Every structure is written in C-alpha cells, then in structure tokens.
Amino acid sequence: MSPIDPPLYEENENDSLWSDDVSLALCFLASLAHHGDYSQEHLLQRYFQWWMNGYMSPTGLCFTPHIDIKKSIDLFGETQAAQALGFQIDIEKKLNYLSPKPTALLRLSPIAYFYSKHSFLKRLEIIKDCVKRMFGIKTSIDVFIAYIELLVNALNGFSKQELIQSIQLEQNSNDILNKFFFHLIYLISNDNNNIEQGIQLALKN
Fold it and tell me: Does the structural domain 10-204 have CATH classification 3.40.50.720?
C-alpha cells in the first residue's frame, strides 16, 4: 500500500498503460529539467503529484493506476524512504509477479533526452537505479539500455542504418520487452519516410 492512496473512479477500468506511462515520462522529464539532474526524491514527488493531482495527465485527473504501475511506484517510494532512513528492504519479496511492460521503456525515455551528451556510464548508472527501484534488482536492464542508447544515437544524428547497426542486443522471443524492442526495430527498418505506409504497418501490428 502506498503512503497515500487517491480516491477511486469508475473510469479506472478503461485507463491505459500507455497513457499512464506517457504521463510518468513527462513527470520524469519535468523532474530532470527542474532539478537539473536525476533525483530519486524529486522524481518520486512528481509521481505522487501525478497520482494524487493529475499532474502531467492529459485529462487533469489520475484514475487509480494499473496494478503494475501502482506496485512500481510503491516500490520506488519504499526503497527511497528506506535509503533515507539507512535501512534496506527485500525488494524481491515485494515483486512476486511484477515485470516491466513495454510501456516501461517509454517511462525511462527522458534519460536519453536529458543525458544524450553525457557519457554512457552516466546513463547506465541512472538506468540501473531506476530499474532496480521500479522493478527489482533481478530485472534485466539489457533492453532498457538498448532502447535508451537507440534514442541517444538518434538524437545525436545517426542515420537509420547506423542506428540499426549500433544495436548490440540479442533477440529473445521469450522476453516480452525484448520482443517489443525488436518489433520497434523492424518498424524502423521498414520505414521509408512514407507516412501512409508507416500508419498501415502500425495498424497491422
């Protein structure tokens, strides 16, 4: 249970993971811009503003988040509070079945935008901390790294071919996050700047 739980709304059932993670990505970007660097405490405050007050929500209201997102924010808050008090908590016991959904990649995308001119090690440090706090210490960061570096390379002017060649991640069809990432790469590979064709490909998949 979170320190503060918002009121429930009937519309919760129709709430979208994509909409939630777009809002959380904007929260992350706003935190980075305001604080000037990655701050667990400041980011958590933005997440709770979204949860309680609809901060960065397209509707101005945040309906009760999807269970995966709720647990993720709960974990983030608990690890941050424990660290501030000098305690450690068993993260894995709190994540019996929580695993990152594809939308989680979007949630961490501001790392690429804000740190595109920084070193890879700086981005890696932040990715590791975010994934650990949101999904647990046993969650693989490989796809998150590949996704963030893909965005960084795009922001730094890589061509489409260079972007594809820069990928150092192996395909694993048994991993939903990995499968989603390579589906994205497939769309990029087959995009010839034809907007109509791009829309058709997106609708088919």
Answer: no
